[in-house]
Amino acid sequence: MSLTKIGLNTSGARRLIPIALTLAFVTVACTQTGAATTSSPPAATSSPSAALTDSLSQPGPVPTVAPAAKNVRIEDPNEYVYSQLLPWDGILPIYEPQFASAADAPLLDEELVMGIALGGEAKAYSITVLRSREMVNDELAGIPILVTW
Length: 149
Fold this sequence. Notes:
two-stranded antiparallel ribbon, alpha+beta, about 150 residues
């Protein structure tokens, strides 16, 4: 018998399947719950499985871990050589930055800047410049600052 003969199209049948499955699960769950509440508790036995079940249901002592050893310096006779891409102080900081007003700054609208405001004064540092120089020693509101990227 096809679904169209009993008055259901395919989409209607698809809607009924989840409802029917839900009703089936609820019915099974209710009958199992009812059976569990009406049955009498099992008699106490001295079988090993009952003792195992009792020991699993009660928590035992929590295992502890020994404290970790303190850091100890060990002697290492090996000599290690680390290669460097840049020499010591290879990237010099900017010691006397020069600033322009926002209207006069040669920056694109979407260019990133790092800004700081302190004591009523504000400054912005171009990320494009900081990528190659990494540090700026400056002063803002009479306080020395270090801007780093």
